Amino acid sequence: MANAMMEEFEALLQESFEIDTPEEGSVVKGKVIAIEAGQAIIDVGYKMEGRVELKEFANPGEAPEIAVGDEVEVFLRSAENARGEAVISREMARREEAWDRLEKAYADDARVDGAIFGRVKGGFTVDLGGAVAFLPGSQVDVRPVRDAGPLMGLKQPFQILKMDRRRGNIVVSRRAILEESRAEQRAEVIGNLTEGQAVEGVVKNITEYGAFVDLGGVDGLLHVTDMAWRRVNHPSEILAIGETVKVQVIKINKDTHRISLGMKQLQADPWDSVASKYPLESVHTGRVTNITDYGAFVELEPGVEGLVHVSEMSWTKKNVHPGKIVSTSQEVEVMVLEIDESKRRVSLGLKQCMRNPWEVFAETHPEGTVVEGEVKNITEFGLFIGLEGDIDGMVHLSDLTWEGRGEDVIGEYNKGDIVKAVVSEVDVEKERISLSVKAVDGDPFAEAIGGVKRGSVITVEVTAIEEGGIEVEYEGMKSFIRRSDLSRDRADQRPERFSVGDKVDVRVTNVDNKSRRLGLSIKAREIAEEKEAVEQFGSSDSGASLGDILGAALKGNE
């Protein structure tokens, strides 16, 4: 009996030796025998027990699921610690298991589930069911994510971009998953859309050039020019993010999946009635919407704008920027000059709604009117004087003075001087006003000669004796009598027979208003007197001598 028991004991002892004891650093199977104080007590056999935190049994983004009696795999780090317990880890076992699973998924290009649980430099850490991966910031979403808080701890699929088991590195992408599902969704939504179809969407983003509208998984671009018939400076004027809008599908690019949308296409085109509402030369009130170097755009009604070219803005301001004449949002009166329906253009005029200032000036300032104005500019050919109606008149050099040259006196004038002048001519068509400064006080030559005309006999005073003749004066006006005109007799054509201060009767042979000179002759006077005497006192058959006739004539004059 004793021998039998001894043999049985030896057999059991031998069997125990033959069973491999678990090796430290390996994964072993165990059984949960109790759960207490947030820990699971696990029997791994061989009379060894260990403790594992419950959180190590939780899948990414989920609560731990563990109960007494469950069989689990754990990693045996040490067979015995200071308390006589095995040191085991579910997390390390899961890691080994996860790497095997992830390597297979990476080889098959399959998605893996995980949860973002931490933030690191350049991105986030992701728990892939035991293995920790790096999620770069650029791979979180298709657009930059400002707040990743809502994504933390959430179980979701990821794509493995690269992995290195030896170094323990895994890089994953959430963006790749989103783009793939987005592409599938876009294809489905685009397949249900047709050009010309009216659909509803939500404004997702607003830019300088338009707005992106979500049509239910696919975005369409609503360009700023297709938002309204009127001018829209910025999309935010009529749209807000999150707003639901009704749009029309204008174009679908099947290759790029780009969709162009329009809002104004669902509204009546105001250009259908432009020709009837705005006949040529009709006057309307509009609002300045935009100012450029070449003119200003004026809105006649929402969707109908016309251009006032810079040349049609002012009668007087020719070389100024349109912004100096009108301002944005200003209400102005304009005249319709031209309509081009094919190009959707309206040409407008601003100055046509105001009277031509040259016409007004011509009516209110007939020739001979004395005006007063400031010297605006001085040129080599005259002065420009500012007049009523914001127009200028010009005083030519020849109209500055009666005596001497205009070139000699123009230097006496300065910009800003107030000058009086007489209106001499107004040319409305050429927009020119001619003025005369010298005419303000009248023409001294005309006043001096009075009723003197060609053929008149006047008395002059000798003021100078010269070799070629004599200088004389009449009412302050100087004239010169040449030697040949001093007498009908050649012997008396000597200047020296006259003295300064002599009074001499002369005949006017010419009145030159341009040179302001009188043509005078003693010889002409003598010839005229002889002719007159012959006519009065003699005839061809009377037999009287010339001396008798002249004597009688002179006696008659006495």
UniProtKB/TrEMBL annotation:
Keyword check for Ribonucleoprotein, yes or no. Answer: yes
| Pfam families, per database record | S1
* UniProt xrefs under InterPro entries: NA-bd_OB-fold, Ribos_protein_bS1-like, Ribosomal_bS1, Ribosomal_protein_S1-like, S1_domain
Q: Does Phosphoprotein show up as a keyword for this record?
A: no
Keywords, comma-separated and alphabetical: Repeat, Ribonucleoprotein, Ribosomal protein, RNA-binding
Per the record, the domain of life is Bacteria
Sequence ranges assigned to domain S1 motif in this UniProt record: 25-91, 109-175, 196-264, 281-351, 368-438, 455-523
Gene Ontology CC terms, in alphabetical order: ribosome
Name the NCBIfam families on file.
PRK06299.1-2, PRK06299.1-5, rpsA
Read off the PANTHER family from this record.
30S RIBOSOMAL PROTEIN S1, SMALL RIBOSOMAL SUBUNIT PROTEIN BS1C
Q: Which family is annotated?
A: Belongs to the bacterial ribosomal protein bS1 family.
What is the stated purpose of this protein?
A: Binds mRNA; thus facilitating recognition of the initiation point. It is needed to translate mRNA with a short Shine-Dalgarno (SD) purine-rich sequence.
Tell me what this protein is called.
30S ribosomal protein S1
